[in-house]
Amino acid sequence: MPRFITIGYGDRAGYERTPRPIRDAAHAQDTKLLSEGAVMGIAGAPVQVRNPEARGLETLDGPFMSSALPIAGFAIIEAADLAEAIEKVSHVPCAVAHGVVEVWPLNEAPS
After folding, report:
1. What is the C-alpha separation between 84 and 80, in angstroms, rounded?
2. Which pTM was predicted?
3. Contact (Cβ atoms closer than 8 angstroms) between residue 30 and residue 46
């Protein structure tokens, strides 16, 4: 089955202004996705990694990407196609609590 990477963006203010029943239903959707085998995690502090021409490792604390909302978490989900993946994440906390979820098809590298 195809896999998709999801990136959830959201902040505490958007979460807290969302009515509790909607938040509870969104957390139930997360639980359902987990029961279907999704791998989920809350975003920690990022580290940029570079190794130009494999001549020296460089690291820098902080994100490379920027957005109006902070990254809240990531997931890898399975779905039959992009439309089903979108439907699955359309009711998770970031999607319903004034945030956004990006869905990226995971085109796996050949072995």
Report:
1. 6
2. 0.87
3. no
